[in-house]
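From the pipeline queue, job 12 of 40. The input is one protein chain; the requested action is below.

Action: predict structure.
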Amino acid sequence: MDEKIKLVAQKIKESKQLVFFTGAGISTESGIPDYRSQGGIWDKFKPVYFDEFMSSKESRIRYWEQRLDMEKSLSVSKPNQGHKSLAKLHELGILKTLITQNIDGLHEASGIPKEKIIELHGNTRRVRCMSCRKLISWQKAKEMIDAGDKAPVCSCSGYFKPDTISFGQAMPVEQTKRAAMLSSKSDVFIVVGSTLLVQPAALMPEYAKNAGAFLVIINLSETPYDNMCDVLIRGKAGDVLKKIVNQVVKGKPIAQSFMNL
C-alpha cells in the first residue's frame, strides 16, 4: 500500500483540478451508521418514500420519528481524521471541489467552506418547507416537535422536511449539473468511502475518467469502478487519507493539530 499512497500523493501535488467524492464510509468513523449494510439505517427502519411523505400524515410522523432516532448519532458526531485530512488539502490550496453523498454536514464542520462542497443528497442539519421552500434549522424543527407537532408544518401550511433527498424524490438539478461539470474538468478524481451504487451520483467518477482524469478509489468493499480506476486502495478512509496527506505535506511545516489527528 505504501507505493500506492506515494503515487496518489504525487498526483495530488501535481493536480490543478483535484476533486474528491465522498460517501458514507468516511462518516462511519465518526459514529454515523451507513444506510445499506447490516445494522445500517435501512436495516433498522423501513424508508419512507417521498410520495408517502407528501400524501400521508402518518408517514410524515414516521419519517420524523426516524429522523429523531438518527439524531442520537448525529448530535454527538464530529469530523474525524478523514474529514480533517481533506480540510488540510483545502488549507493548502490544493482541493478544488468536494462532492459528497453524505447529509451530515461534517465536511463543512471540518473547515471546508460550503462554496467548495456539493451536497448531492442534501443536508439534514437544514429543514425545508415543501411548499414555499423556506429553510429553518434542525433545532427549530426539533423545538416544534418537542412542543407537540409530530410532523412540523410551515406557516404557509406546507410540510417541513429535512433538506435531504428521499427515495422517490428528484435529485437537485443545479447541484447534479455542477457536480457532473466539475467531475469532467478534474485531472485527479478521488472516491472515498462510497460503493458507487446510487445513481446519478455514481456517474461522477465515470465522467472524470472519460475526460482523462487520474481515478483513485479508496473503499473497504468492491465498487463497479474497481477495474476502471488507476489506483485502488482497500482501507479505512481516515487512516488512508491521513497517510496520503502526510505524504503531500512531507517536507513542509505541518500544523501540530494535524499531526495529532
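Job complete. Confidence is low (pLDDT under 50) at residues 253-261.
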